[in-house]
Amino acid sequence: MEQIEKFRQDILNSASEAPHIVSLKEETRLTGGLPIIRDMGRTWALKADLSVVLLYTDCWESENKSGFGEIIEDNVIRSFVIAYAAIDYPELVSLVLERPANTTDCMCSGKDDLNIFGETCKICNSVGWIPSQWLSK
Predict the structure, then answer these.
(1) What are the residues whose beta carbons fall under 8 Å from the beta carbon of 49, sequence distance 6 or more?
(2) How many Cα neighbours within 13 Å face the side chain of 46?
(3) Which of 55, 77, 80, 100 has the smallest C-beta neighbourhood within 10 Å, fewest atoms?
(4) Is the confidence at residue 110, as pLDDT, over 80?
(5) Domain ranges of the chain
């Protein structure tokens, strides 16, 4: 998908030396994708072929796998990452798939009701659902 590659290049070509941009550039380079979900020790990135890469960014979080990326085959997680991406990158909304069956409603219901400061939900990015298996981790 050309749009994903364009966003990747925008990150990689950024002149900013701010620490969060430097780490974003590194995650973009290591995954070969567009970093979408970044949390403590892990980054989920969306590649141009719509595959998802999970990159371990901190060895304490990932059992000494820092810098190691793996392709995620789970279609529920893939659907979630694509839906999450479309909120941050509206140009990707045409990629959003229907909500898979094995998911759980988020407390926000996708409406930002819990966010009094007008921010998106920190759990689901206001998608309104999360992969059920994430609740057991």
Answers:
(1) 1
(2) 26
(3) 100
(4) no
(5) 2-136
